[in-house]
Amino acid sequence: MNHTENTRIVLAARPDGRPTTSDFRLEHSPVPEPADGEVLLENLYLSLDPYMRWRMSAAKSYAEPVGIGEVMVGGTVARIKQSRHSDWHEGDTVLAYAGWQRFALSNGQDLRRLDPSIAHPTTALGVLGMPGFTAYAGLLNIGKPKPGDTVVVAAASGAVGSVVGQIARLQGARAVGIAGGADKCAFVKDELGFDAVIDHRAPDFAEQLAKACPDGIDVYFENVAGPVWDAVRPLLNNFARIPVCGLIAHYNDGAIQHAQADRLPATMHDILAKSLTVRGFIQTEFVDQQQDRFLQEAAQWIAEGKLKFREDIIDGLAQAPEAFIGLLEGRNFGKLIVRLNPQ
């Protein structure tokens, strides 16, 4: 590999609707030189996550959009290749937010040291990273499952949903997953141990979901929205809690689609009539729980075989745009990660 050249993927255009590979551009540039107080990172793994679709849009959101011509954002596992920072040393493996590129600079404030002897570094992008913590924080702080509750989560084979259901069971609740396709449903039921799983592609999906939730739904962890919400909403019990984590069914909506389905009146009616708690959140709201609670508990659950995970790893930065588009369409199976320097 040429260590004098940086490869990066930038946002070339803002998509209207489904992104295409032409919305991204592969560029080459010189490897940057760290100044005093900086380190040079060599990214080893890149996390691909649904929130990145929002960052491609100029619409107002919880974070600034990626600028046209700027490197796409994303969490990475990196090795410090060169250090001019007293707290960081060459060879350290770190969690960073260095984006879709091979090399990046950091002042050290956004880094977290990783110990590869404790867990494989890729887990810092998934089950022990932002997706796992999102599941933990949203479910326990907002969903608040109790023993005997029925907890339903869509995208149940994914990085967030898979953790939601397993933690729900650890809290004594029933876990009902929603996934797409026989293989994913079998994984959720047989490997992750959910009490039930429903294929949202089934023509009688709503009827199957109702049968799996004979006592209604007490907690619905929202990752998807759209038609899945239509099937969930009538089953919600009084005082049900709904952490809203994602709306992946709508991330690719263009201007026309936004006007087609108005679910708001029926949703607002049920919020009032059933005294529902609907609470959107971003995992950074609960960051004070990450080090002392989440990482310790989750690592222990993994060691005891109580928290399982699956990773979907693809090779090569150039494959990231197509893999990301596939993520938004549910083509991945597990936490989607790009290995930047396949051997």
UniProtKB/TrEMBL annotation:
InterPro entries: ADH-like_C, ADH_N_2, ER, GroES-like_sf, MDR_fam, NAD(P)-bd_dom_sf. The keyword Transmembrane helix does not apply. Residues 20-338 form the Enoyl reductase (ER) domain. This is NADP-dependent oxidoreductase. It holds the Pfam family ADH_N_2. It comes from Pseudomonas edaphica. SMART domains: PKS_ER. CDD domains: PGDH. Keywords: Oxidoreductase.
